[in-house]
Amino acid sequence: MWGLDLLNALVTRLLFVLHSLVGVWRVTVVKNEPRYWLLALLNLLLLLETVLTLKFKRGRGYKWFSPAIFLYLISIVPSLWLLEMHHENQHCNVQSEGMSQNMSRKEDFNQTRKPSEHIHGVDDIIETARLFVNNLSRVCETVWTLGLHQTFLLMLIIGRWLLPIGGTITRDQLSELLLMFVGTAADILEFTTETLKENNVRNNPGLVCAILLIWTWSMLQFPLDLAVQHAACPSSASARRFPILFFCLYSADLWNIGISVFIQDGPFLVVRLILMIYFQVINHMLVFFAVKNSLVVVLHIYRLVALALAARASLQDHSQGPKTERSRQAQSSEGERRGWEGEAREGLSLPLQTSPVTSDSHSSP
Q1: 65: β partners
Q2: Number of Cα atoms under 13 Å in the Cβ half of residue 120
Q3: What's the whole-number mean pLDDT along residues 107-118?
Q4: Hey, where are the domains in the chain?
């Protein structure tokens, strides 16, 4: 079991590093400056975390928080920021035609070769790899950026799945957490792609920075495991107070509501409303997701009120429980006392009834 945890920990972190390096490579291609390869040094933090985790935790995760996911965010998010800030409208159709021409040249090259040359399959593999890399480098910037966003979210979900379970989280809680991540990933992807593709937004660098800042803030929910773990309730008398009892009973629900309202749906709703009202950016997808965010926020507030009422009722039951128990004990003691008094009275009345009989029996000869 320890070997499987070790393998999963190493493979997951290796995938994180490779994906981060692809993002850095794309930034150097777009900027055409080799100095951006220095962004790859951010992966040293992930390598250091890997060594410490393997040494002290034997590859297993931590409680409440995943450092590997957090350091992966640190290594890949700056590259995505640079790509989005350097976004340019390119003609992807022209570049796709160039890719098709390269592929046709490869086919002609293979057809003109002699049959004896096909024995050397290594040359074919090298030529295919070279053309594949050239075609990837010719893909337009918008397609590359969208692909990095999509694979980034997939890597977060798959990587969290592959990482060994640590702390007090169970497999059932992990599956619930992954389903939550899948649901939020679609909204996050739409938030960046649909809003940033608008010309009114793209031509405003300050607005682009604000959108990317909110997008980065929403990424902080992925390293957290708080939404599926329940807090341990103390058995002391102080736990009878409403705030402590409320948090103990519904800690996972409260974390889920807080993450949704303050990290994702709430900020996304504010940004979308500003885009529609102030910047006059209106389309059917923006309106739909704004309505979706507003419904989620309202339903979470409704659930928060329902949980508060349930906790209040539970607190009243706890407070009335000792009173009811004391009244029952008082009633039982009162009944026992009356029973003893009745028995005592019956015991005293028996000699009074038998004494005349005994006296007559002794005096009758």
Answers
A1: 224
A2: 8
A3: 48
A4: 1-91+129-229, 231-344
In Å, how far from its chain's centre is CA 316? 34
Rounded CA-CA distance 188/258 in Å is 17
- Prediction pTM value: 0.76
Per-residue model confidence (pLDDT) at position 337: 52
Longest CA span, the chain: 153
119/84: higher pLDDT:
84
Tens of pLDDT, residues 326-350: 555 555 555 555 554 555 455 544 4
Least confident range from 89-93, 141-145, 207-211: namely 89-93
Characterize 227-255 residue by residue with b for buried, 16 or more Cβ atoms within 10 angstroms of its Cβ, and e for exposed. Answer: bbbeeeeeeeeeeeeeeebbeebbbbbbb
Burial class (CB in 10 A: 0-12, 13-18, 19+), 102: middle
Whether pLDDT at 46 is above 90: yes
Which residue intervals of the chain are DSSP H helices? Answer: 2-31, 43-52, 67-85, 92-112, 121-138, 141-162, 171-196, 199-202, 205-218, 242-249, 251-259, 265-277, 284-363
Strand partners, 224: 65
| Cα(254)–Cα(259) distance, integer angstroms | 9
Give the pLDDT of residue 136: 67
The Cα 183–Cα 267 span in angstroms is 17
Q: CB within 8 A of 38, min separation 6: which ones?
A: none
